[in-house]
């Protein structure tokens, strides 16, 4: 079998496995779960054409509403409370696109790892493990937007490294611009992905200048267009669609000026005002305490998972696979030690640790608003790629990876009832609570 055929077959296997682990029990539960109470309302706003305010850029909910429209969902559920029962099965259409995005994350990480120079088998292991990461599945399984943020961000990075290998080819850079812009058009935290690519591109540019190579003006034009102009066009276009889909008054009017509500502003003015309001809402209004909020320094250790839903003996937790979570955190510390003490000169390792911290460090500056464990997911994926990369450097790595995979699958199955919301006995539940802080 040729190498390319092997790559394709392994990629197809990851997609099929991703579809299985994500779409399995998509109907469970037939009640509103966690922040579906918000994003379900926002999707209703698009489908009714009624203005709403979310505090985020619009792309994530636009995609959810699009899936709902294709699936025949009618905006008749109120999404007023967690645990509100759905009266028919049309809510599944709203869960479709987040699950689809989540299903393709393992394939994307597989491609990302290959573009970084991983062996095919190591890249496959990185993608394979993600299909059994309970927290990532839980966050993709419901009417939530983080799976879009992660998928677009890592796909954009994979395209960046593909462009880098090809002397910053236009085709790959343009596609990179599209997906990186789509990532921060879902949530502003997606800017971390373009920061990673931009940091590395700037470093390459400095080396390019030092070597006095020809074509510096062409390189600058490429970077200017693909890191600034095109992403801004993509980002603004999602707001253009947003305004077109919301011609009618709605709950979001209370956040906006009279001119905005009266439709007297042009697009640029509305675009600027909504972004300003989004910004101030994130730093001023989201300050309420939450029993399952957590600080950034606890995330690598999975100290405080999030209770998403409960009904009798059935519960859903945002709880990661402990084998994946804790081992990947350990390998991050090991890599830091190697880099700073052993003065490790490994460009792939350096890129991965930069990616980990650029997705993680911004939350260190957040002091006014609540933060949650799911904010760590992009960094978690970087830590998993670090783990696989370092294991690949060890003698008998295939044996170690095989043992790791068996352990990961066993842990996934053990915690699956808390991921998918199955009924379990009180005794079984208590045995699943390994730390008191998980309650």
Order of helices and strands: HHHHHHHHHHHHEEHHHHH
Give the strand tally: 2
Largest sheet: 2 strands, antiparallel
Provide mean pLDDT, rounded: 93
Separation of termini?
A: 50 Å
Low-confidence stretches: none
Helix content: 55-70%
Give the DSSP E fraction (strand runs of 2 or more residues): under 5%
Kindly provide the radius of gyration, computed on alpha-carbon positions and rounded to a whole number of angstroms: 22 Å
List the helices and strands and how they pair.
Blueprint: H1 3-23, H2 36-48, H3 59-70, H4 92-115, H5 120-130, H6 134-140, H7 146-165, H8 170-184, H9 191-210, H10 216-245, H11 258-261, H12 267-285, E1 306-311, E2 314-318, H13 322-340, H14 347-360, H15 377-391, H16 397-420, H17 426-432
Antiparallel strand pairs: 1-2
Walk me through what this model shows:
This protein has 439 residues and is an all-alpha fold. The chain has a domain at 3-248 and 315-326 and 397-427. Helices cover 63% and strands 3% of the residues. A two-stranded antiparallel sheet has the order 1-2.
């Amino acid at each position: 079998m040729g190498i390319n055929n092997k790559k394709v077959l392994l990629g197809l296997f990851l997609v099929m496995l991703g579809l299985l682990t994500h779409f399995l029990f998509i109907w469970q539960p037939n009640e509103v779960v966690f922040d579906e109470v918000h994003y379900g309302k926002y999707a209703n706003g698009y489908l009714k054409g009624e203005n709403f305010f979310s505090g985020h850029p619009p792309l994530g909910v636009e995609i959810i509403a699009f899936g709902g429209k294709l699936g025949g969902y009618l905006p008749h559920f109120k999404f007023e409370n967690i645990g509100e029962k759905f009266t028919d099965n049309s809510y599944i259409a709203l869960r479709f696109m987040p699950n689809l995005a989540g299903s393709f994350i393992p394939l994307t990480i597989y491609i990302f790892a290959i573009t970084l120079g991983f062996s095919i088998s190591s890249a496959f292991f990185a993608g394979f493990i993600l299909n059994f990461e309970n927290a990532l599945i839980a966050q993709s399984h419901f009417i939530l937007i983080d799976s879009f943020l992660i998928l677009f961000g890592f796909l954009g990075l994979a395209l960046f490294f593909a462009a880098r290998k090809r002397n910053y080819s236009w085709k790959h850079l343009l596609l990179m611009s599209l997906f990186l812009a789509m990532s921060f058009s879902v949530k502003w935290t997606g800017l971390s992905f373009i920061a990673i690519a931009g940091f590395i591109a700037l470093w390459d540019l400095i080396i390019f200048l030092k070597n006095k190579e020809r074509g510096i003006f062409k390189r600058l034009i490429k970077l200017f267009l693909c890191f600034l102009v095109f992403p801004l066009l993509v980002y603004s276009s999602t707001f253009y669609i947003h305004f077109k889909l919301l011609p009618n008054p709605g709950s979001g009017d209370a956040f906006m000026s009279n001119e905005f509500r009266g439709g007297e502003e042009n697009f640029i003015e509305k675009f600027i005002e909504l972004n300003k309001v989004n910004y101030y809402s994130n730093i001023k209004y989201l300050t309420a305490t939450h029993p399952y909020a957590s600080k950034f320094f606890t995330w690598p250790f999975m100290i405080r998972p999030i209770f998403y839903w409960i009904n009798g003996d059935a519960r859903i937790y945002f709880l990661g696979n402990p084998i994946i979570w804790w081992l990947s955190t350990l390998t991050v510390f090991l890599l830091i030690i190697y880099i700073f003490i052993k003065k490790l000169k490994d460009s792939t390792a350096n890129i991965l640790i930069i990616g980990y911290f650029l997705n993680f460090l911004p939350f260190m500056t957040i002091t006014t608003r609540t933060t949650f464990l799911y904010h760590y997911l992009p960094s978690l994926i970087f830590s998993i790629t670090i783990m696989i990369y370092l294991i690949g450097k060890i003698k008998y790595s295939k044996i170690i990876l095989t043992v790791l995979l068996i352990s990961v699958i066993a842990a996934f199955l053990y915690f699956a009832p808390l991921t998918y919301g199955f009924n379990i006995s009180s005794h079984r539940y208590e045995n699943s609570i390994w730390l008191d802080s998980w309650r």
